[in-house]
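Quick one:
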Amino acid sequence: MADIVIKGARVWDGTSGATQDATVTIRGNRIADIAKAGSTVHPDDARIIDGSGCTLMPGLVEGHCHPSFTGITDPAELGRVSPEQHMLLTAQNLRLLLSHGFTSIFEAASAKPMLGVTARNAIDDGLIDGPRMLAGSPEITTTAGLGDERMRHIHQESFGLVADGPDEFRRVARECIRDGVDVLKINISGDEFVSHARAEITPTEPEEIEALVRVAHAFGKKVAAHARSSESVKRAIRAGVDCIYHCDFADEEALDMLEAAKDRIWVGPAFGLVHNCTKEGDAAGITSEVAEDLHLFRKFDATCATYHEIRKRGIRVVVGGDYGFAVTPMGQNARDIEHFVRFFGYDPIDALKCATSVGQSLMGRSGELGEVREGFVADLLLVRGDVTQDVSLLQHQENLAMIMKDGVLFKDPLHGIRADGLIRAAG
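Output:
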């Protein structure tokens, strides 16, 4: 098929501090040419897209994504969904994410073994629509840790794989790698909704973390960690964890350690869950009284203070807010970009970088994705309005005039989201 030429848009390239008027040509799955507006000569059969009044920008990256979290109120609900039904619901969420402009996701844990791997492979094979993804393991935890829903009298499954001691952590890590995961997720701290292991408790021991990380890195896999307590952050850094989520209660020593390691790590606040529980929780049964009892207002304040400091120290931060719970419906994911501006002190451009070029660095795709640059893969959004001035534009599907992944128009400005068939530029 013919080239696709996008004219009339303001182009934000994913790294610069401003937009520019340019004409962008897509050939095959790559950005073939970026030229000054009005200067491009294109073939007569090229598909012309009028981007007037829009911003052309890189596709979004969800850096803390749980596509197999299906609107739950209680983690044990995930264990009660059959694998077959769970896979269908996961596929539905993946299409929803792509329809909201997320062309890449870093899976921060799968709710069951093989869900993420199966979804990733199905997307790569063209069986289902969804973002390109790195597939995660379930959340590897300890007895009495976050994700262990078992009771003395009832065996319950959740999103956790339970291991105790370095040998079991090695075994579980190797089993997940055998399954084909790209990312191993480990829960180092507790969380406020775990009555016996609140957020500032650190159940997972250094030797267990180190054992898992050594196995993962030996196989070339990344490790992501749930780490709310200050001690859990320190243990994650010492063990060589790649991506450290939350860090809400990081003290000065932990912040210094994060800064010293900033060239090799990423962090992610996963702030959507904290925000919605404290600001919009009533609809999901999280009243202000419940939020207070769970110390969530304190966590909100701690997270904001921590990420103001993380921003000042130049540590790489990715968006992604623990969406997939009843209180954080899937599809709200782009709200995190505005949260970075409103609550963490980012300017709009830097918040957008977290959602694009910084996200692709976590994906391991810097140099070919996350920027509007000649030779890069054509993962692109055409957004109505100037998103570099108002990042909230990305929260509304009607503002996404075009969604392109790998040179394919998933959402066409003329025809909307495709039901079947592909509109692809020719190679």
